[in-house]
Amino acid sequence: MSKSKLITVKGIGIATLMVNGEDFISLTDIARNKNPDEPKDVVKNWLRSKTTIEFIGLWEQLNNPDFKGVEFDAFLFEAGSNAFTLSPSKWIEKTNAIGLVSKQGNNGGTFAHKDIAFEFASWVSAGFKLYLIKEFQRLKDDENDRLKLEWNLQRTLAKVNYQIHTDAIKENLIPQELSKQQTSFVYANEADLLNMALFGMTAKQWRDANPKATGNIRDAATLEQLVVLSNLESINAVLIHQGLPQSERLIQLNKIAITQMKSLLNSKSMKKLK
């Protein structure tokens, strides 16, 4: 569960959360549009409706393989009667629901998956729902713009590291007497050193194995591989300046690539960038 972000809808602050990669919106905050003093009562009243139980039950059946159908049927049978009451925490506990989340502490309350939250907003006020959708979309657009900026910064960093890498090759591995064709061979040779350390093959080997693919081995790289490649270029530049032979650099770079890939593949931050 990530830190909440706030959007403002008709002067009301509404918190949003990321739960297991899905967007959740505060029902408690939405309910303030109907009853600013007792928003919890608004949520409980909504949960008393048979239509509501049918909707959130169907959502769970479509999205939650561990949803307890027997308990759901019991709630559905009782829903709508004068004596029927249901709290979000009871619904979650009895049915193993994942579409609602109860958050304790500051900025707590009941959160719902956006599909359910928009349905609740319609029940509160159709007009309020439209404003909510508009502001929520604005938040997602801002997040996408930020991710694009981070991606562009990563691309820029990769270019800077590439320049550092090629400068190190030029200063330490290429005698002045070599022709342009000869120097390009050295650059390509060092590029394939990184390819071997990270991908386990040279650029030519990749092309031979993927004859119908467009681009090259690095064009087909994942985000994690591009990050590691950028780091390897900087590290290889340092190793070149230290005078390490290529065979020793390959061993070290391969070990670093394995360690960093394992770390990045388990990184929640990297998963959010995708």
| Percentage of residues in DSSP E strands | 5-15%
What is the mean pLDDT?
82
Query: If strands are numbered along the chain, what order do they take across the biggest sheet?
Result: 1-2-3-5-4
Helical residue percent band: 55-70%
Please write the string of helix (H) and strand (E) elements: EEEHHHHHEEHHHHHHH
Number of strands: 5
SS-based class: alpha+beta
| Oligomeric category | single chain
Nearest-angstrom radius of gyration? 28 Å
Low-confidence stretches: none
Largest sheet: 5 strands, antiparallel
Distance from N terminus to C terminus (CA atoms, Å) equals 18 Å
Number of domains: 2
| Shape label | elongated
Number of helices: 12
InterPro entries: KilA/APSES_HTH, KilA_N
Keywords: DNA-binding, Plasmid
Pfam family, one: KilA-N
Protein name: KilA, /APSES-type HTH DNA-binding domain protein
Explained architecture:
It comes from Haliscomenobacter hydrossis (strain ATCC 27775 / DSM 1100 / LMG 10767 / O). One of its GO terms (molecular function) is DNA binding. Keywords: DNA-binding, Plasmid. Pfam families: KilA-N (PF04383). This is KilA, /APSES-type HTH DNA-binding domain protein. There is one protein chain. With about 270 residues, the protein is α+β, with helices and mostly antiparallel strands. The protein has two domains: about 5-125, no CATH class; about 145-270, no CATH class. It is built from twelve helices and five strands. The protein has helices at about 25-30, 40-45, 50-65, 70-80, 90-95, 115-125, 125-170, 180-200, 205-210, 225-240, 245-265, 270, and strands at about 5-10, 10-20, 20-25, 100-105, 110-115. The chain has a five-stranded antiparallel beta sheet with strand order 1-2-3-5-4. Strand 2 and strand 3 (about 20-25) form a beta hairpin. The mean pLDDT is about 80.
